[in-house]
Every structure is written in C-alpha cells, then in structure tokens.
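User: For a reading group we're discussing how well predicted structures match intuition. Take ABM domain-containing protein. Before you show the prediction, I'll give you the sequence so everyone sees exactly what went in.
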Amino acid sequence: MAHGAEPFALVVRFTVRHGAESAFDDLTARTVAKITTQEPGTLIYTCHHVEGQPRQRIFYELYRDRAAFDAHEQQPHVKDFLAQREELLEAIEVDFMNMIVGKPSTSSEAA
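Assistant: Thanks. Here is the predicted 3D structure of ABM domain-containing protein, as structure tokens, for the group to look at:
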C-alpha cells in the first residue's frame, strides 16, 4: 500500500446539551444522508447512542485514506454540520486513528 494510502479513522464523543438531543440527532441524520450519497471515500460513518448516557453520542468514521478524510471535511454538508452542531453540544472529544490490522468489510457480510 502506498504511503499515505492507509485507511484513516476517528472516534468522536459528543456530549449533547440537555434538551438538544433530538435536534442533534436530526442534524446528524440529514448530514449522514448526504455523506452516504456524495462521499465514496467515506467507508463508514456511524453515530451511536451510549447505553445509560442519553446525552452521549459516539461517531465512528472510517475513510479510504487521509485524502478522503480531507475531502470529507471540505464538503458543504460537513461544514454546515460543524457550524450547526456548536449550539447543540457541551463537549467534544476526538481520537484520530491509523489502522494497524483489521478485518475488511465485504458486501456479502452486509447481506
């Protein structure tokens, strides 16, 4: 694999302001719909609720490579998400990750 072409991932933990959970989830759903149809280099982009912590959301994002992540960050729908989320959040924690080993997803597993 060429240098810089390794998969690139991040995990983001959001603490949503009390009462803003639905607004944040709606914003996320609208954004993910556009990511799904407009970003072929974004391989996985998921948002999870944390059991027992109703204001916590964890995003897992996997990109083909760092260039795909950089392209993701420049999309108008992502810039809109980044701007709108600010008033809905109390805290953000981000971990950027570079894959060492892993089992790749295949389309037959999703069926």
